[in-house]
Structure formats: C-alpha cells, structure tokens
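My current task is to audit a protein record that another person submitted. I need someone to confirm that the token line plausibly describes how this chain folds. Take the sequence as given and treat only the tokens as open to question. This is what I was given:
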Amino acid sequence: MSDKPYVWRFTRSGGFDQVRIERPEDLLHLAELDPKLWAALACPTQGLVFDQATLDAMDRDQDGRIRIPEVLAAIEFVRASLRDLHLLFGADRLPVAALRDDTDTGRRLAAAAQQLLKALGLPADTALSLEHVADRAAIFPPGHANGDGLITVADLRAVGEDGLLQAIIDAQGARLDRSGDPGVGSDEVAAFFTRVEQQLAWSQAQPVHAQIDLAYAWALTEPLLAKIDDYFARCRLAAFDARAALLLDAREEQISALATTLIAADSPEARDLPLAHIDVAALLPLSPALNPAWGEAVLQLAEAVWRPLLGPIDVLSLADWQTVRAIVCAYGDWLRQQPQPPLALAREDLARYAEAERRLCLEQAIAADLAVADAADSTLELLTLLHYQRYLVQFLHNFVSFRDFYERRQPALFQAGRLYIDRRSCDLCVEVTHLDSYTALAAHSRTYLVYCRCTRAGAKDKIIVAAVSAGDAGQIMLGRHAVFYDQQGCDWDATIIKLDENPISVREAFWTPYRRMGNMVAEQMQKMAKAKEAGVQAQAMQDVTALGKGSAPPAFDVGRFAGIFAAIGLALGAIGTALASVTTGFLSLHFWQMPLALLAILALISGPSMVLAWFKLRARNLGPILEGNGWAINSQARINIVFGTTLTQLATLPPGADRTLVDPYAARRHVSPWWWAVLVLLIAAVLAWLWRRHA
C-alpha cells in the first residue's frame, strides 16, 4: 500500500472548497477526507426529494438522520459487494458477474441474485435493475416464508388457523409483512395468548345465582346503590340521636324552594331529597311513600330482585338490604376485575383459542418463517445495493459537496420544486417541516424568503419557503397567490403566509431611497388633500346651516387671506431662491464637472443603501435555510449576487420575438411631439446661455 497521500480534487463554489467525487478512487478514499471538509455533517431522511428507500437504508440506526459514519458504511458495503465501482457512476443495471466472489458479502449477494432471477422467471445472466424489483409482492409473495418473523393470514390458510390469526390482528394490531400484507410476530402472539388466559380465567369466575339474573340485577342496582346506602346511613344516625332525624330528613327550606317553582318528579332538586322519610327502625317502605324521583326505579328493583330473594316483602330492612347487596355487588366486583382492554371474544372462543395446540401451530409458523431469514436478508441487501448503484453518488453530490446545487444541472435533493410569482420563478424552494422552529433559524440566511402554504386537491397541505434572489420585491405581499410546481410536475395553489424581507439586488437598493421619498411625498399629499377636503366640507355645512337659520354667511376677510397669500409668496420665494442658488452653482461648474456632480448627488442619496445591500447580498447563506429542517451544515454555502440571479429567473421575451410597442390603452398624449422637441431645445439653449454667461 502506497504511503503517498491521496490527491483530492476540489472546486471553489459558494465561497468554499468542495471536493469532487467523480472516480471510484474518490469513494475508496472518502473515509480519509477530513470531516471538516464535508459540506454537511448530517441530514434528515424526511422532507427531501430523493429515493426514500436509499435514505432509509443509509439510516442504519433508524433515527431519521444520516450522518458521516452511516455514509461511509454505505460506501464500505458497496466496496465489499462490487468488483468495479464504475457501476455507481451512471450505470442503471447490475450484472450478476459484477458481484465479488472473494468476499462473503459478494458471494451472499450473488446467491441472492440467482434466487431472485429464478423467482422473477428471468434468465440467469440477466442484469438486474430497480425496475425488476419494483413489485415487492413478486419478490416476497404472500403465503411464503420471507424471513421477517411475521406470519400473515395467507401463511395459515392452509392449516385452517387463519381465523385465529385474524383475531390476533384485531386484538393486537398488525405490522406489515415483507409481502405487504398485515401480519404478527412472536410478541403479538405471546401478548394475545396471555390476554386470552387472563380473560378466560376471569370469565370462568363469573358469579351466578339460581333465583335471579345477576347481570340484570346489577344493571338495576348500580344506579340506586349510593342512594339506598345513603337512606340507611341516615336512619342509623337518627337511631343514634333523635335530634338528627329532623336534620337528616327533607328540610322545610328545601320543600319551600320546590313550592315556588314548576315541579318535575325527576328534577335535580327532588332527586337530592332523601329516598324516603327517615325511620329510626331503618325500614324502607316499598310503597308510594318513596321519593317520586326514585320510587319507580326502587319498585322495579324490588319486584325483579328483592322479592325473588326475600319473599313478598312490603318494607326493606337494613339486614335484608345487606343480604341482597352482597349478592348483587359480587357481580359488580367481578365486572370491575375484567382485564383491560377486554377481548371482544365469546367464552367458547376463548376456550378454543386457549388450547395449547393452536399456540404451538403459530409458533411453528413463525419459526419456519425465521428459518429463511438469512436468504431473505441477503435479498434485501441486494435490493439495497441496487438503490445504492443508482442513487449513492447522487446523494454524495448533495452531502459531501453541494455539487448539484451549484452546478445547476439537476435539482439538489433539498429543492422541492419551483415557485412562480410576480413575473419570476424561484428555484430554491424548500419544504418546511416545522414552521415555528424553522423561521428562527432561516432568518439568519439574510435572504429574501417567501413562505407559502401549498394546497392541492386530494393531497395533504404543505408549507414551502422560496428564496427570491433577483429583481426586486415588486408586488410580493402577504396573502398573494402563486403557483408551485413540485419535482414530479404537480401544480399546487400557493398563498403567501409570511415574508422575511432582506435586500434582493443592488438595483433595488439604488431605487429604494427614491421610492421611499416618493411614497412619503405621496402620503403627505394625500393627507393634505384629505384634510383640505374635510375643511371644505365642514365650511360648506357651516354655510348651509347658517342659510337655514336665515343668517348670512361670514363675509370674506380680505386681511386674513392677504396674510395667507403673503406667507405663500414668501415660501415660494424661498424655494425659488434655493433652486436658483443650486442652479447657479451647478452652472458655474465646468462642462466636464457637471456629470460628476450629478453622479455625486446620486451616490450621496443611493450610496448608503447600495453599500448596505451589497454587504448583505454577499453574506446570503444557504446553511440556515437547510438547518431549519434539521440539516447540520458544515460550510459557508454562500448565495452571492451572480449565483443568486440563476436561482431566480425574471420574465424575458423569447429570442426573436415580434414585439409591437404601440399600446392602444396607453395614456393619450394631448400635446404634439413637436412641442416637446421645441421645449427640450429651448431648455438646452437657456442652459447653454447661462453656462456661457458664468463661464
């Protein structure tokens, strides 16, 4: 092995050096590359426009994130599988002969490839591709062992235990078998039979009584249990102290409150009264002397339960109540001991499923499925290799470097699609997974960001963020509608829900001060016009009111308006003097100095805004836009002014387009163009005379 360090090749893009991965040797030495030179340290497996099976295979610990060790493990797996790593650079098919025969991994995958070709009915020399394995049911057909330790209804149909398995699925839930059918494993089977044994034991302990139906008796007793206990407790207290009898019985104020309202027998006020008058002998009358809010239910209970147990009684003593209460409440106690959650199975089904042979049948089916686990796992490894062959290098171009993003040959895996809005298209669109946490990080990108809620019939709503990196803000505003096209070409209705405003271009920054001054002047003029209009209307109302009262409107105050006119004249004179001074000073310059003076004035007004915008545009960073979704970016991935213009395209006419400049709806000119020419010549002549005079 050579001691010379591997010679890497880098490309400068986005303000940092990005390693070029274009040869098999680059893959073989990638573990030697300093992690500080990788573009990213981690990325999520969700929210990306990429082959999901490849992402899931690389995520070895299934935590939803891919890190550098997992990327290197994928490369090592490919190295141990293939003779020639050139197959990763553009090849769509995998010949069986390309698998290594000098490694355990290669030999295992070669055997799996032969088995797969046989299962698919293809010749042994067929080169495999992802299209061959798109139908998972063809690789792992239902009803056949596939090594995942799960059994399905189809697996047990031949032995007649499919009904039992369906009961387990209904009770414990299911996991997807490799065939795509719902199935269960040893954990679900063990939990189900434990529940069957518990519920069967509970069911067999059900209390029974020869004279009454305990289930019906409990249904009648449960609503009355607390009320009857309350009555006998009051009676015992009254027997203990005679003074308590009046206090524990229905009190006068309660009856008085009922007397002043419309009375309903089952009203809450009536139900709060005792079950019957308190009797120190503790005898509950089974007669109309009962509280009418409870009387009918008590008499029904007495007829169905008490009299069958105690005989033809007219009153219920405390001892009798304790006797029937113990019998009936035993059923209630049994109900409360039911295992939770209960199985929706009859007792005979529980007894049938509890037979040891049935459980043994399921355990044997699971063992038979696990017996082919090694071969099935090798088939899955082969599928993973097919995904790596097609997509691994592309992933590296979006993780080790950001080649796809900066070369613009194909969208990067984090680019969700293209947004069309305000005569422009934005290519840097990222799907937002958690809006609240995302915006806090993305704000540090110093990029003009447009957040849109996207909707489409039959699809779940989603939120995207689009970077506007060319042109100006224009008519971009909250609530405005746009159209978003995802990478599959599907169109979504997009509505702006949030804006993160930053400079878009230096050109926009140049015009910003003038727009602000124009907006300020227009706003002030509108305010003045509104104030003047309000004053005129108020004065008109005053005059109309005065005429209505028969009095003459106030006379025109010449002195007052003379003062106003004088003030206006002074103001106009001051403005004219200032303009004259500026004009005189400008005309006193030499001819070659005048353009420089104009440029200096423009620089004085627009310069600070342009300089500030230039610094911010140079600092635009891709990192925060991605880190809001869980990426760990390891570089200063800049979006400078030049590159930003490629991410946002403005509307332009096609080359060679025939353009008519006459707009039939343009504002009509009321002055002949010759008059404008004469005016321009006259102004030029005056300026030339003034300049010669001051020269």
